[in-house]
Predict the 3D structure of the following.
Amino acid sequence: MTTTQRPWSERLEIVRGDITCQQVDAIVNSANPSLLGGGGVDGAIHRRAGPQLLEECRKLGGCATGEAKITAGYNLPARHVIHTVGPIWKGGDQNEDELLAQCYRSCFALAEKHGLRSLAFPSISTGAYHFPLDLAASIALREIIVGLERLPYLDKVTVVCFDDRTWTCYQQALAAYKERTGT
Ligand code: ADP
């Protein structure tokens, strides 16, 4: 496997769009612990992937919060789906920050194990799970940047924001990160 020395800032992209259209090695699904489908991004991924995705998910035995499991992508343009379970926001004193960070770390661990070179993330936990968007964005970006620095052969990580508010929040979090670290 060839390695690239490109800095993380050239390998990170924040876009507005629909994650089910991303042509990458793996898209990340913000799933629920059953892994048997749900609403939001989870529903969209299952609809586009087709019923075989649910069949494979049934065999996985669910997934704990902060952990991740990988399947094929079936009818999606992405080759794989990494299913992770974000924390439900309960006010901030239930270890939610750490659990959200663990989701991203678990996804990067699977990317490493499977030699994936491109990943797309949705904004985990900020929909039905009500994690505050600005806090989620800063945790997400911090962990994605750590992942990009740790895995130099990872060509691209795309954060796919489904609405303007999410996109703006991630852009602001990125600008704040760069200012803080002088990058
Ligand atoms: P969670 O349970 O993690 O909060 P949701 O699916 O409710 O999951 O929301 C997570 C984020 O995914 C939200 O910002 C939501 O707008 C977004 N989202 C929903 N559908 C899509 C999609 N097709 N592509 C990308 N993001 C999506």
